[in-house]
């Protein structure tokens, strides 16, 4: 007879379910495997129960007590079979991991307006408490880039805020790693650094279309701001933005005219967010 004291119990009682929930908070990946194994065990238990019910005739020695112990035995056998692995748990885990990867891609920031679905799997990105916190965290990096470009720092913070929803929707890779790409800069043919594939929105003939595109990834925010400053300052098509001086509207229109984004309302959106960033910066 199988040693009932060594096999873990099925998560069908309050104590076992509570332990599984606790483990899910402390170690999500391990809990996913445990939950999948529990599902496989329950499935096997249902099969054993159905097989016993399908047996012809009745046992004259059968009683409620023997039925109870038979049920306990089936539960232990099911758990043992699941622990050894019949393949169902592996399929469940792969399906869940594949679903999480797709969800992370869909949660990446929309390059055109910074709007995205609710954030998830954000452990790789630093948490923010709101726009004011985002401005405070990025201000030093923005000031370094601003000195290079000759525009106010809140112009740059404003664009980073627009592209990421004030830091809530930073671009992440399929594995959840943060790209630190705050400006939605795509990886062209000349880019030799790291990249991430992102589901984004492009406007084609005025109509929004969802496509998967390749974006740059950085090892630090300082690197991201530095690369942004080079892109705007050294590319002739963004000369209107680089020469905007203190005019936020001119800066935004210069970026839009240079083709920074395909959203026809990008300049207006950016101007409004820059104004918000300026107000927040004065209070930081």
What does this structure look like?
The chain is mainly α and 284 residues long. It has two domains: 14-99, no CATH class; 113-283, Lysozyme (Orthogonal Bundle), CATH 1.10.530.10. 55% of the residues lie in helices and 7% in strands. It has helices at 14-26, 28-53, 64-84, 88-106, 131-149, 153-164, 221-234, 239-242, 248-257, 266-283, and strands at 195-204, 207-216. A two-stranded antiparallel ribbon has the order 1-2. Helix 1 (14-26) runs antiparallel to helix 2 and helix 5 crosses helix 6.
Layout of SSEs?
Elements: H1 14-26, H2 28-53, H3 64-84, H4 88-106, H5 131-149, H6 153-164, E1 195-204, E2 207-216, H7 221-234, H8 239-242, H9 248-257, H10 266-283
Antiparallel strand pairs: 1-2
Helix pairs in contact: 1-2, 2-3, 2-4, 5-6, 5-7, 5-10, 6-10, 9-10
